[in-house]
Specification:
eight-stranded mixed beta sheet; three-stranded mixed beta sheet; 13 strands
């Protein structure tokens, strides 16, 4: 069973649909016991960093997520879910993130004719041995929608990068924590392959 954490963020149903398509049983929940007895946990989301942290606190999910990590249940953050795993975001000055990993979320700098938000397909450079990307060719295209990007403090946790005016840390892996800035559930066969790798951990 895969628990998808429900904190009123957008795009949760499409993650459930992608998992169902892969033949996986998924449940959208904010119930602590259901989350902690799941085999895998996903924190998806589209929305604003500050609002999302407020909801996670409101629903008592911050402690639940910390417990998921402590119990070493494989945990995947998607898009906003990746950003929330880190310490802070330019989008919400003064708001603390979950702080599961060291790093900051910065605004994509305006330059030339780069459109912000960054919306569309970009190829990613995969680090050798990254578990989420096993079996994929180098430079696959995945789908992004974001105005802010991760700059991880520890380069060793970065599993994939992309270029959009700056180098964006597009995916991270450390222990049981995994995250993607892009949307695997909207990234066609490549994205389904990534989700399959996660559920197979």
């Amino acid at each position: 069973m895969i628990a998808i954490i429900d904190y009123d963020a957008g795009n949760i149903k499409s993650v459930e649909k992608a998992l169902n398509f892969l033949g996986e049983e998924a449940i959208i929940t904010r119930d602590r016991d259901e989350i902690l007895k799941s085999d895998k946990v996903i924190l998806p989301g589209v929305g604003a960093f500050g609002d999302a942290m407020e909801k996670l606190h409101q629903y008592g999910l911050v402690e639940t997520i910390q417990e998921v990590v402590k119990r070493e249940i494989p945990f995947l953050g998607i898009c906003l879910g990746l950003q929330l795993m880190f310490e802070s975001s330019d989008e919400a000055p003064g708001v603390k993130g979950l702080g599961l990993l060291p790093g900051k979320i910065l605004r994509i700098p305006k330059q030339g004719d780069l459109k912000i938000p960054h919306m569309g397909w970009n190829n990613i450079k995969i680090k050798e041995g990254a578990k989420l990307f096993q079996g994929l060719e180098q430079d696959p295209y995945v789908y992004f929608v974001h105005s802010y990007y991760l700059k991880a403090d520890d380069e060793d946790i970065v599993a994939a990068t992309t270029q959009y005016g700056v180098t964006i840390h597009a995916s991270v892996e450390k222990g049981n924590i995994f995250a993607c800035q892009f949307h695997p559930e909207k990234s066609s066969t490549v994205g389904l392959h990534i989700l399959k790798n996660f559920v197979s951990l």
